[in-house]
Amino acid sequence: MPFQNSISDKNHFNLVDFAGIGFGPTNISVAIAMEELRPELSASFFEAQPSFGWHKGLLLGGATMQVSFLKDLVSFRNPRSRFSFTSFLHEKGRLADFANLKTFFPSRIEFHQYLEWCAQAFASQVNYGERVEEISLIEPQGSSAPGFRLQVAGADGQRRIFARNVIFAGGLCPQVPETLRGKSGVFHTSELLPNMQRLRPGSRVAVVGAGQSATEAANYIYDNVPGSIVHAIVPRFGHSPADDSPFVNQVFDPEHVESFFNAPASIREKILSVHASTNYAAVDLADIEALYQRWYMDRLTGEGRLHLHRMSRLIDATHIGSTVVATVNHELTQTTSQLELDAVICATGYRPRDVRDLMDERTREALRTNNDGSLDVDRLYRVGFDLPHAPALFVPDMCEKTHGLSATLISNMAVRAGEIVQSLPHHHNTKLPLSEVA
Question: Is Oxidoreductase included in the keywords of this UniProt record (predicted)?
Fold first, then answer.
């Protein structure tokens, strides 16, 4: 079965140099880099959400970023950029006030405002409420260029977009244990705020997990739902602090991506394993201490509102009437118990979405993969294809095994975006009107 017909500038008008799937921090940083480094390129971004939003379900009052404001979407690449966090503060009239906070870590609410402020600058290039449903390779023929065809669906139906290059930044997909998936009364922390309305005074809630979002959720519910009873179900003996010490934190520095990429696979795996506590199932010490303070005061007063189930796992949940009956396995005592709850909140992490889920069969077959089935990705985050001439498909959010712990984080986005944009080839006659292809 042949690939799609080749791209022809003469015959296809719905053609852009660069198409971005998703418009979260990754692709916003790319849009900024394109404006500053390659303004001659045409670009179009497709975001399934109706408007910009980044982890909106976790914009809890008092929650702060775990990354310095200096690691915004641009400063490490271009500290003079008009898109820096300090430029945002200056425009909003809060630069001096923020400086008086004496912190490197803005609130999550304020950083979300910063991201939204950056996104608004590219509103004309972003198609909100449109989802890319399929990616197809277009093989070059004659003097035409290789590219991709995107099948896009929105409120007005479906249309086709042709792009010379694509960056897939579909974001992270919330993970819920299979035994709990789809159960009534069970939801992920990414949906915490929209579900707060279901928690009435005195609600009984289980928070499953040992990471940052689990600790924040337990603290937040305890403080904001009067008389609530919170069960923290933790697979460890206790919550572990994130390692943000300066030498270890250098694992996120842009200059260390090169050495990580060139290291043997066994060394890369060792770094990811040894330093997982910088990002996974780890909590800011201040939040752990805040939870412990609540737990201690609860014992002191005898309120019985905060319960810690250490070395435990929630293995099932059944909705009986208006109650969620949760079965908990306590590994330390080798016992099982049941809890009657009003809600179960899963702080059970995320996984990067896989670009292969959007590809047609022939495009998937042309992919180069490694022995473990992972994509063969080069230093510039490009997927390899078994073709003599292939367009560039970038998958930066899927590159933790090859590029390090910063792959899904904000830390390296500014520099990474510059590398991706600078790697794009130069084409003639790239400025084409966007109209429907016949």
Answer: yes
